[in-house]
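Supplementary notes (optional reading)

For those who missed the lab, this is the record we used. Protein: Type II secretion system protein GspH. Length: 192 residues.
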Amino acid sequence: MKHPRSFEWQSRGFTLIELMLVIAILGLAAMYVVITSPTRAPGNTAEDAARKFLLQMHHVREQAILRNYVYGIEFDDDYYTFYRWRDEAWHEIVAPPLVATRVPDTVEFEFELGDFRILDNMTEGRDAIFGRDARRESSDDDDPPRPQILVFESSEFIPFRVRFSGMEPGDITILLDGRSGIDFVREERDVW
């Protein structure tokens, strides 16, 4: 004898209320993900910009020792460019990782030159160093590069500090202090 309800289960679909409830839950979960996700792409933070600069400096210092080259770094408002001294002129480096680097729009960038006493004692002035004399200025070419930082064959460099600050609330500021001319001290700060 067969029980009347044992195998007579009929499959039925979802009700309209159940479907609306599932859609509402999925909508809330999607809204939470969108609201909590970062507003900028990876690599656009002060931390990332400082890390990239440190890696580039490490590379240029290695190359200075290994190849016995002198390198220069020219800082501008929102980018910095690497040069190599060759044939009595500065030549821009166009091979990665030392290509000209633009700091992301979400990061404020400040450069401060440190003390370099050997330049203070020169009678001709700093513009006579590495071919930046009257011969260069009278040429018809564009202005020659004027690196503020020199990295010597010993891997020592002209002392400087650079600061990378996030421009959004809650972002950190990374200060790379190379005023020793030998190594960098990395600090996280709120104020310069």
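If you only remember one thing from this example: The beta strands are 71-75, 79-86, 89-92, 101-102, 107-113, 149-151, 160-166, 173-178, 185-189.
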